[in-house]
């Protein structure tokens, strides 16, 4: 009976223990780096150093999921493959849940590697690793692959947590932006609407979402004149709300010092151009009424034409110019002027009133709106607005797909 080489067995055990210690130290260093919120490039660099110098992995491709596809975040060794071809090759193995030997694989890209290591969360693939030029002893293959899988899995979890944290921050930032936009817009909407011996005003503002792009305002300029405006800015969110806030401030500033409506509109157009650089536009209807002369002057800047109702008849206020913010110099301005009969109704609205998702073959166009105004123009402004919304909900039975603003004036 031959004697057992006890020293050889002890050497192997010591070597295995030292290897385990090195693995634990590597995992500890990576974990410490993650806890310190180390950047993704540094974590990837640590992975490469451990695989190269400690495990002697000569070839690596590490892909992570990003936006419903995969991107290669780490690669060294061998000839570089086409990025899209590499992704497609790995996705052929998307259902593989454990390390797989690739030797002799039919795919021309995969067969150049020794092992494929997948990483999943609830059956969703998060990352893939391709290992090549990896000459480890037969007894240690299983151990080394398990360590590689554990090491990369720790990094994958860290990267996924970073992504989730960024998404949460983005969500919170968006929510805060929407809250700010709502606050800004609430400051633009008049809290009290005017009513005196000359005019009575009723308004309804129905944002389609938390924050809309509509705006209306009413200003008593002096003892005999009033001015009102209805506008709609392209886009939503805080940027649209801030643009409207600036627009309101500019409108109020120029309307109180400039008698000519055309000059007010020209100045507002320049302000919108300067603030948006042509990336947004505003449709607007602005009107000034003189109680002594009973003259109504107005400019329609690409807005839905308000309807003037008097003595059982209705007409549209269409004269004006193009939308604001489109041209640096407005190509034309046609100011309208009409005589207002006592007890006339002026109905202003934004395009959301006409942008309805209709059902049951119902019809809702400018002709139907004009007919409604003729049939209900005798109502007081608040009652008129509510009756119109009831008509849309109960008769037209449509679904609003945009903000709706109604501004109705009874001029006595």
UniProtKB/TrEMBL annotation:
SUPFAM superfamilies xref list: GAF domain-like (SSF55781), PP2C-like (SSF81606)
Coiled coil residues, start to end: none
Protein name, per record: PP2C family protein-serine/threonine phosphatase
Family annotation (PANTHER family): STAGE II SPORULATION PROTEIN E (PTHR43156:SF2), STAGE II SPORULATION PROTEIN E-RELATED (PTHR43156)
Keywords on record: Hydrolase
Source organism (scientific name): Mucilaginibacter jinjuensis
PPM-type phosphatase domain ranges (all copies): 196-411
Keyword Hydrolase: yes
Domain of life, per lineage: Bacteria
């Amino acid at each position: 009976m031959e004697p057992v080489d006890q020293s050889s067995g002890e050497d192997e055990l010591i070597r295995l223990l030292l290897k385990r210690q090195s693995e634990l130290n590597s995992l500890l260093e990576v974990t410490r780096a993650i806890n310190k919120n180390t950047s993704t490039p540094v974590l990837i660099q640590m992975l490469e150093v451990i695989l190269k110098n400690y495990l002697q992995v000569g070839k690596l491709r590490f892909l992570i999921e990003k936006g419903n596809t995969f991107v290669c975040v780490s690669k060294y060794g061998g000839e570089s493959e086409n990025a899209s071809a590499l992704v497609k090759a790995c996705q052929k193995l998307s259902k593989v849940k454990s390390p797989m030997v690739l030797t002799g694989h039919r795919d021309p890209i995969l067969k150049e590697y020794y092992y494929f290591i997948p990483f999943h969360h609830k059956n969703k693939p998060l990352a893939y690793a391709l290992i090549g030029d990896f000459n480890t002893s037969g007894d240690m293959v299983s151990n080394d692959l398990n360590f590689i899988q554990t090491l990369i899995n720790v990094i994958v979890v860290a990267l996924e947590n970073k992504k989730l944290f960024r998404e949460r921050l983005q969500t919170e930032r968006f929510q805060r932006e929407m809250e700010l936009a709502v606050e800004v817009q609430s400051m633009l909407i008049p809290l009290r609407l005017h009513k005196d011996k000359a005019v009575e005003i009723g308004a309804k503002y129905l944002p389609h979402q938390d924050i809309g792009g509509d705006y209306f305002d009413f200003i008593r300029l002096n003892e005999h004149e009033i001015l009102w405006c209805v506008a709609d800015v392209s886009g939503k969110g805080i940027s649209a709300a801030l643009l409207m806030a600036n627009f309101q401030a500019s409108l109020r500033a120029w309307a109180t010092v400039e008698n000519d409506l055309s000059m007010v509109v020209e100045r507002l157009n320049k302000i919108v151009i300067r603030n948006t650089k042509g990336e947004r536009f505003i449709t607007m209807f602005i009107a000034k009424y003189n109680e002594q002369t009973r003259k109504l002057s107005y400019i329609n800047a690409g807005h839905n034409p308000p309807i003037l109702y008097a003595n059982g008849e209705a007409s549209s206020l269409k004269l004006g110019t193009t939308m604001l913010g489109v041209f640096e110099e407005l190509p034309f301005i046609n100011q309208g002027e009409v005589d207002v009969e006592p007890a006339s109704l002026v109905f202003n609205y934004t395009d959301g009133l006409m942008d309805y998702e209709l059902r049951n073959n119902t019809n809702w166009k400018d002709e139907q709106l004009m007919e409604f105004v003729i049939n209900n123009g005798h109502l007081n402004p608040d009652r008129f607005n509510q009756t119109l919304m009831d008509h849309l909900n109960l008769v037209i039975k449509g679904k609003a797909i945009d903000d709706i603003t109604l501004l109705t004036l009874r001029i006595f």
